[in-house]
């Protein structure tokens, strides 16, 4: 029996022992008057459940005493007897007799008992085909040698007395010849039990007189179908078969039938013990006693999962056929639409590909220059003629005022463009599209430029005349936004009315304007930093002074990629005692911070050299080292300091006093071109040990000699020893022509490829 809705559930024990499955079973069931053309439907579902089961099924109308329904198996028993027919006639046609061979019509047989509304709990009858009143059936039995067989009859009424229909349920058990038994009563009892238990159809009985209408009996087929043993379900309401997908309307139908005490038939989804679902075709019929009191509900269930599946597949196939027919009818229009869609898709793909190509070209083109004028010219070249017939770009300064403008026309028209730019673009009125884009940071699309719109947007008559000569039917402007600032606007103009701008054009131009704005902002940042670097460089790298008796030249290259400054420096001083001070140094680092530290160090060094009471270079560097570490001017630095003392008489040699703080050795070129590496001049770096002692080397050099000091960027190469770099530098200096001046020697020194990962400072001084 299917799930019955209730608020209670209880358990109990089996009311009858289970027996082994018996022989082939036959069941006759009386259930419905609908099959008797009465038009009633109270019991219409039960024959539908049992119509094709492999057992005989009858429906008996007790009031008329006639058989009103016979299923396929029952027709095989009695032949194709026309219904309705009285029960005795049907029994005679089937060849039913009592055990003594007397026709049931002449005795008080079980069919008559059931037809009178009394239950039959089990009675043996004989099926003797040879006695059938159907000549064809009797003759076939004789010819086939069919012997008599036993049937066991069980029946009970399905409806109470006084109802519109008086129906009964009858069950026959078809048995093989009985086994020998010494106890006939025990044998008959076994037949009785097997008649009910050993059916291939699921039977359940509930007791509505107990709370929650529990199950009181199930046959073995119930266990086979549901997986629940009898002792697991006896005493429980069978709602446990319900599950998450059980239809609520099917449950409601069952509830209504039980409450009305009427036979109800429905198909619903139930669940086995292992959780698998099956479709259950269920018929529940009330059973009343002789006094008309409800004593039980009999449930007949059949697993119709396969039938439901087939029906659904048939429905799906029918639906698929209908859909296929509709699709066939629409095939031509669908094909045409598909072709149209393909053409649109191809056009969209081509537009997308063109847009990607444009953006890729824009990125590579705009970032390739750091000159603003060239950048704006490249930008208009990207717009014309690919996006518009002519265009103009307005650029704002940091205060939001118009700073620059550039325009381009596909046919040149430079004179008209200059006039339009001067009269309009450089003086944008409030209602002009470019000014509106700049003010709102939103695109402005004028799909059609009417005379009224033009007069409002271009207030200058001269500019309007230039616009008419240039041509324009549609205008699109977008702002150039970068780093949360508006840098200007791009305006595109098309001259053909059938090529008005669309929303797709807006998206493309917005993408291009964003890239252009970043490029413009980067150029401005570079120019601003370059200006700062240029100013800093002018202050840190001095112009060499004119000093009597010497000729000097210097060279500087920064390793920084963003500013032409670094930590290397040089200096030349005409000291108060008429001697000449020369210094080349290198502060650790290659950026603006290193340049700033170098500026501090250079100023400190100048002060020490200029106002020194002790002019010895070694002691001078020691004093600078103490000041650097005490004041925190720089971290680490190398330098070489030379003090040249003039000869007292003409033609006499100059006297050089030199000291080094971890710096590469200076070079001394003789008047004849020989070059000497001053390797004996060494000392500790500045910033390591404030108490370090640095010795001073004194050299007499003839007039015409040139002293060359440099930083390590001139001699360092990746993967090479520094000594190799010094040797190559010496060779380049020595290869210069005899008589070459300091400028020529500087050029020779830097003629080799430099490693621009380090700064280079170079100072050459020739003594006259």
TrEMBL record:
Residues 215-237 form the PAS domain. The keyword Phosphoprotein does not apply. Residues 262-316 form the PAC domain. Keywords: Hydrolase. One of its GO terms (molecular function) is phosphatase activity. PANTHER family: STAGE II SPORULATION PROTEIN E (PTHR43156:SF2), STAGE II SPORULATION PROTEIN E-RELATED (PTHR43156). NCBIfam families: sensory_box. This is PAS domain S-box-containing protein. It comes from Blastococcus colisei. The lineage of its organism: Bacteria, Bacillati, Actinomycetota, Actinomycetes, Geodermatophilales.
């Amino acid at each position: 029996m299917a799930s019955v809705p209730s608020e209670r559930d209880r358990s109990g024990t089996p009311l009858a022992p289970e027996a082994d499955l018996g022989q082939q079973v036959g069941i006759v069931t009386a259930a419905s008057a609908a099959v008797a053309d009465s038009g009633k439907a109270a019991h219409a579902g039960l024959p539908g459940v049992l119509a094709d089961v492999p057992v005989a099924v009858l429906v008996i109308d007790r009031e008329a005493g006639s058989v009103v329904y016979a299923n396929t198996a029952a027709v095989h028993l009695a032949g194709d007897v026309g219904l309705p027919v009285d029960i005795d006639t049907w029994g005679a046609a089937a060849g039913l007799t009592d055990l003594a061979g007397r026709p049931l019509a002449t005795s008080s047989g079980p069919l008559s008992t059931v037809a009178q509304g009394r239950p039959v709990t089990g009675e043996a009858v004989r099926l003797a085909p040879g006695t059938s009143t159907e000549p064809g059936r009797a003759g076939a039995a004789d010819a086939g040698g069919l012997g008599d067989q036993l049937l066991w009859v069980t029946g009970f009424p399905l409806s109470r007395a006084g109802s519109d229909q008086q129906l009964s349920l009858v069950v026959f058990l078809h048995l093989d010849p009985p086994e020998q038994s010494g106890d006939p009563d025990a044998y008959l009892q076994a037949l009785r039990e097997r008649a009910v238990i050993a059916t291939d159809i699921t039977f359940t009985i509930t007791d509505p007189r107990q709370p929650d209408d529990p199950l009181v009996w199930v046959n073995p087929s119930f266990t086979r179908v549901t997986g629940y043993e009898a002792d697991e379900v006896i005493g429980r309401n069978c709602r446990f078969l319900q599950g998450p997908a059980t239809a609520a309307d099917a449950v409601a139908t069952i509830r209504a039938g039980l409450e009305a005490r009427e036979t109800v038939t429905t198909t619903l989804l139930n669940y086995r013990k292992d959780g698998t679902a099956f479709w259950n075709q269920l018929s529940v019929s009330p059973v009343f006693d002789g006094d008309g009191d409800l004593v039980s509900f009999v449930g007949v269930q059949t697993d119709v999962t396969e039938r439901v599946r087939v029906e659904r597949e048939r429905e799906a196939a029918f639906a698929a056929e209908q859909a296929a027919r509709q699709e066939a009818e629409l095939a031509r229009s669908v094909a045409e639409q598909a072709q149209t869609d393909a053409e649109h898709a191809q056009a969209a793909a081509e537009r997308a590909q063109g847009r990607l190509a444009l953006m890729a070209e824009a990125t590579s083109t705009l970032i390739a220059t750091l000159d603003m004028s060239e950048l704006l010219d490249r930008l208009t070249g990207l717009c014309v003629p690919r996006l518009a017939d002519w265009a103009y770009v307005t650029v704002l300064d940091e205060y939001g005022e118009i700073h620059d403008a550039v325009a381009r026309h596909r046919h040149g028209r430079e004179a008209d463009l200059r006039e339009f730019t001067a009269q309009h673009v450089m003086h944008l009125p409030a209602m002009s599209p470019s000014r509106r884009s700049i003010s709102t940071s939103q695109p402005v699309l004028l799909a059609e430029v009417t005379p009224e719109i033009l007069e409002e947007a271009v207030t200058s008559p001269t500019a309007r005349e230039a616009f008419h000569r240039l041509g324009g039917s549609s205008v699109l402007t977008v702002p150039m936004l970068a780093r949360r600032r508006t840098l200007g606007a791009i305006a595109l103009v098309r001259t053909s009315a059938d090529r008005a701008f669309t929303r797709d054009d807006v998206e493309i131009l917005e993408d291009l304007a964003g890239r252009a704005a970043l490029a413009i902002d980067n150029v401005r940042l570079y120019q601003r930093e370059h200006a700062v670097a240029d100013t800093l460089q002018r202050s840190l790298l001095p112009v060499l002074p004119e000093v009597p008796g010497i000729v000097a030249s210097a060279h500087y290259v920064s390793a920084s990629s963003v500013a032409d400054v670094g930590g290397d420096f040089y200096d030349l001083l005409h000291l108060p005692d008429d001697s000449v001070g020369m210094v080349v140094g290198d502060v650790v680092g290659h950026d603006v911070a290193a340049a700033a530290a170098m500026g501090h160090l250079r100023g400190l060094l100048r002060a020490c050299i200029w106002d020194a009471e002790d002019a010895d270079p070694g002691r001078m560097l020691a004093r600078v080292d103490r000041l650097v570490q005490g004041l925190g001017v720089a971290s680490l630095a190398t330098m070489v300091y030379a003090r040249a003392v003039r000869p007292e008489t003409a033609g006499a040699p100059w006297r050089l006093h030199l000291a080094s703080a971890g710096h590469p050795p200076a070079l001394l070129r003789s008047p004849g071109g020989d070059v000497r590496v001053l390797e004996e001049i060494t000392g500790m770096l500045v910033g390591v040990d404030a108490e370090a002692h640095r010795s001073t080397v004194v050299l007499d050099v003839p007039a015409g000699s040139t002293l060359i000091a440099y930083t390590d960027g001139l001699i360092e190469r990746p993967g090479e020893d520094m000594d190799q770099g010094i040797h190559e530098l010496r060779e380049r200096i020595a290869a210069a022509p005899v008589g070459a001046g300091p400028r020529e020697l500087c050029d020779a020194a830097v003629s080799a490829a430099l490693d621009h990962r380090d700064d280079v400072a170079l100072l050459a001084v020739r003594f006259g």
